[in-house]
Amino acid sequence: MRRSLGLVHWGIIMNGDRLIGVSVVVICLLAAAGLAEAFPVSSAAWSDGQWEQHCNDVRTTYNRTAPLSAKTLTLKPEDPRFLDFLYWAWANKIIEHQVEQMGGTEWNGPANGVIFHWAPGSRWEAHTVVPLDHAIRHIAGEHNWQDNMFKEFFEKFGPVKGVNIRQRLSMDKPPTWAQFLQHIGGPDSPYYRYVFHQESAIDPVRRTVTLVGGQGVRFEYSFDRYLQEIKEVLTDCKSYQFFELYDRYGTGFASKTGWAGQPVSKP
User: Fold this and answer.
1) pLDDT in tens, 194-243
2) What values do phi and psi take at 221, rounded to 5?
């Protein structure tokens, strides 16, 4: 099966030390004759082996004597590179993601958790599987989704109450979490990409990242929480281009407006 991952239109406005962005994502899914047995990713994605081939000989001020780790991301929030790293990850849309229905959307995926599809159409494109309780905390606790945001689903099971979806869904009695994830993550769902979050601002003083999503969602991550999300996708090796750019241009290359002396539009 081949899946068209659609088009991503991304606008970024930098205002002083804050970065404000807007994205409009349109995803088009192509009908398939059969189901894929492995994680389906686009031809743009690099395998772990390809990443290691590209980063193995790279030496920067971050890794002067040894290859960058291909297993984990070791960059810490206290590192002077960290703020630029956050802006770099945002500009590359690395944590852009969608959640698929249980067992995969139009492919035979694992059914032992919830599938997150990250950075579609990029070198970093990947799938991860997270436990259902983790996904519940994410969409019910952080996104604060309510039943009246998905009324065509919940009204089939009784009156819409304007309450958090955690109060309406269960593991085994309808409406179930699996039914709901199929509704929002199925191939024909209008929510498939629309509702999931994307960055809208980084506040270096408060050390927070503001995120927005469809249906009027807005919430904040601390830098530490945001880093957890980034680690789902990135390792030091998969960040090698960041470390090279940081050494080439220095502090502020991704986070400071007009650092090269270029004209900057006023908001």
Assistant:
1) 887 889 999 999 999 999 988 999 999 999 999 999 999 999 999 999 99
2) -115, 145
Least confident of 25-34, 99-108, 161-170, 177-186: 25-34
Say what the pTM is: 0.81
CA dist., res. 119 & res. 216, Å (int): 22
- Here the tokens at position 195 are 């509702």
Domain range summary for the chain, segments of one domain joined by +: 77-103+110-142+186-249
Walk across the sheet containing 208-213 and list its strands: 198-203, 208-213, 217-222
What is the Cα–Cα distance from 213 to 198, expressed in whole angstroms? 6
CB 106 within 8 A of CB 187: yes
3-state helix, strand, coil in the chain (%, to 5): 25, 20, 50
Residue 238 DSSP label: G
Buried b or exposed e, range 51-84, using 16+ CB within 10 angstroms: bbeebeebebebbeeeebeeeebebeeeeebbbb
User: What values do phi and psi take at 151, rounded to 5?
Assistant: -65, -30
18 close to 201: Cβ distance less than 8 angstroms = yes
